[in-house]
Structures are given as C-alpha cells and as structure tokens.
Amino acid sequence: MGAASPQAPAWLVYGDAAPEPDGVPVPGAQARTRAGLHETLAGALALPGWYGHNWDALADALADRLDDGPLTLVVTDAADLLADEPPAQLGTLLDVLGAVAAGGHETLRVVLHDHPDRLPALRACVAAALNGHVGTPPPTA
User: Fold this and answer.
1) Most buried of 49, 55, 62, 104, CB within 10 angstroms?
2) Which of 29 and 4 is assigned the larger pLDDT?
3) What's the CA gap between 57 and 62, in Å, rounded?
4) pTM across the whole model
5) pLDDT tens by residue, 72-119
6) Do residues 110 and 12 lie in contact, with contact meaning Cβ atoms separated by under 8 Å?
7) Coil, strand, or helix at residue 47?
8) Calpha distance 134→45 (Å, rounded)
9) Pairing of strands 12-15, 71-76
10) 99: which residues sit within 8 A by CB, 6+ positions away?
C-alpha cells in the first residue's frame, strides 16, 4: 500500500513571489518560537487584550476576527515558522488554523512564502505535520 500524495488544504497555499498586498504580513523569522509567534500575531492582527498567547486563545481570536471579514495571513520566510520548537508545534498551529478555516463565517487563507530553494523542505514539513507524522519515526517496510 503506497503513501498518498500529500495535498495542502484549500486554505493553505505556497508562494515564492512577492507577498500579496492585501494580506497581513507575518514574518516567520520573528515567529521561530511559540512565544514569538503569538507575539507576532498579536501585533500584526491587533488582537484584543484578552488574547492569552496560547493555542485556544488564538483559535478564539481568529474566529472573532473572521466575523469582520475574510483574512489572509502571508507568512514570509515561512520555513522559519516555529523552527525552534518541536515539530509537533507546527502541527498544532496548522490544526488551529484548519479548525478556524472550517468553522469561520468568512474565508481564512494562509500563504506560506519563502525562497524557491526552501519551499520543498517547507512543503515536506507541512505535509508531515498535516498528516500527523511529526515526531514519529518513518514506517519500515
């Protein structure tokens, strides 16, 4: 039984061109840790004072933000996103974003931008995180 080709969900896209002008820029280099990510998102999105800088609070804040209209997050240097955390943290972030995208009244879109040389590794990390394979050894034949 062969492994299925990983495909990103509809709300997640990759890019190597200039970031989209209408998106909210999220510098991946400033979001290498969970604390850095939460701080960066709080500033970029002007999240409310009750935002608790944790995954549940992020889900709530993004869901509330989607009540105001569609949202595009443009992560620059996306390969740096949560790079200083255990790989499972990227999976948690993607789970949160996926749940918000599925339950939102408006569209959530996340664009992962990086240099073309870094995109294959980024795609592999994201695919592993989306398929729940982070932190586990590869299957043996």
Assistant:
1) 62
2) 29
3) 8
4) 0.85
5) 999 999 999 999 999 999 999 999 999 999 997 789 999 999 999 999
6) yes
7) coil
8) 28
9) unpaired
10) 59
Asked whether the beta carbons of 93 and 37 are under 8 A apart, the reply is yes
89, two tokens? 């943290």
Our CA dihedral for 77, 82, 85, 86, rounded to 10 degrees, sits at: -100
State how far the Cα of 84 lies from the Cα of 64, in Å rounded to an integer: 29
C-alpha distances in Å from residue 135, one per residue of 32, 43, 54, 113? 18, 30, 21, 24
CA distance 7 to 141: 23
Helix intervals (H) in 1-141: 34-44, 55-66, 88-103, 119-130
Between strands 71-76 and 108-113, the pairing is: parallel
Using alpha carbons, select from 48, 137, 119 the residue that is nearest to residue 81: 119
**What per-residue string of b and e applies to 93-107 under the rule 16 or more CB within 10 Å gives b?**
bbeebbebbeebeee
